[in-house]
Amino acid sequence: MAISTIHEAKTNLSRLIQRAERGEEILIARGKQPVVRLTPIRKPGKKRKLGLHRGEFTVGPEFFEPLPPDELDAWGH
């Protein structure tokens, strides 16, 4: 993790941005106190299509019934 002062960040902003884009965590400090984290903007993933598997699965009414006590205990309740 790199820490840069505001003055150093202004002088070397392009280099700091390149390092952040490569995945390095860059902190910018006012004096010795970190105040900002420089991180890249991630490209959004593929857009999801709603209803892609519609009709392929069914959920029976038993799914909505409460779990038996022994199964609840297994989950830490």
What's the helix and strand layout?
Blueprint: E1 2-5, H1 6-11, H2 13-21, E2 26-30, E3 33-38, H3 69-74
Parallel strand pairs: 1-2
Antiparallel strand pairs: 2-3
Task: Walk me through this protein's architecture.
The chain has 77 residues and is an alpha+beta fold. It is 27% helix and 19% strand. It has 3 helices and 3 strands. A 3-stranded mixed β-sheet has the order 1-2-3.
Strand content: 15-25%
Distance between the termini: 41 Å
Please identify the structural class as seen in this structure: alpha+beta
Q: Let me know the largest β-sheet.
A: 3 strands, mixed
Total strands: the figure is: 3
The pLDDT mean sits at: 91
Rg over alpha carbons: 25 Å
Number of helices: 3
CA-based shape: elongated
Fraction of residues in helix: 25-40%
Strand order in the sheet with the most strands: 1-2-3
Low-confidence segments, given as residue ranges, are none
Order of helices and strands: EHHEEH
Keywords:
77 residues; alpha+beta; three-stranded mixed β-sheet; 3 strands; 19% strand
Short précis:
With 77 residues, this protein is of the alpha+beta class. It has three helices and three strands, in the order E-H-H-E-E-H.
